[in-house]
Design brief:
The protein is mostly helical. The chain has a single domain, classed as Tetratricopeptide repeat domain (Serine Threonine Protein Phosphatase 5, Tetratricopeptide repeat). Helices cover 66% and strands 0% of the residues. The N and C termini lie far apart (46 Å).
Length: 157
């Protein structure tokens, strides 16, 4: 027999509902649901991460994604997915210095003894050891400088 008095995470159900709305093709509706959820639970890193994922794809709102992933990493500094998503979002909005700072922050966690994914560590080590080389590579492949940041009026908020 299970104990039905066990406390459930209050964001679990609304988060699942918002993700189901995205699956049905209504990303804007899911954003509204998550924004409402975050008004009630602003310290939910999972909700910020989900919102950032929707801003990233399907909505292609890199600025909204960066804001959401920043909040997720502030709330859970050791969350690797949020860190990597923030890093990529910062690259997408041409903020290489911010992406470099996130890579350095991530590496500092590892140096402090936090176990982290080795693939991300290797990538971040490469970036931190030769930031100008990485910036040149990103420019050469069109990841920096070729895409303007999304204007706030174009965000769909």
């Amino acid at each position: 027999m299970t104990d039905q008095t066990t406390a459930r995470d209050p964001i679990e159900e609304p988060l699942a509902e918002a993700l189901a709305v995205v699956e049905r093709g209504d990303a804007e509706g899911a954003v509204r649901m998550l924004q409402s959820l975050l008004q009630r639970f602003p310290k939910s890193g999972r909700a910020w991460l989900a919102l950032g994922a929707i801003w990233t794809d399907p909505l292609k709102n890199a600025e909204g994604a960066v804001e959401s992933f920043t909040n997720a990493t502030i709330l859970d500094p050791q969350h690797q997915v949020a860190s990597v998503a923030l890093f990529h979002g910062l690259i997408a909005v041409n903020r290489f210095d911010g992406a470099l700072a996130e890579a350095q922050r991530f590496l500092a966690l590892h140096e402090a003894g936090v176990p982290l994914d080795s693939d991300h560590l290797a990538t971040y080590r490469d970036i931190v050891s030769d930031p100008e080389g990485m910036k040149r590579d990103l420019l050469a492949h069109g990841y920096l400088g070729s895409r303007p940041a999304v204007a706030s009026s174009d965000r769909g908020r």
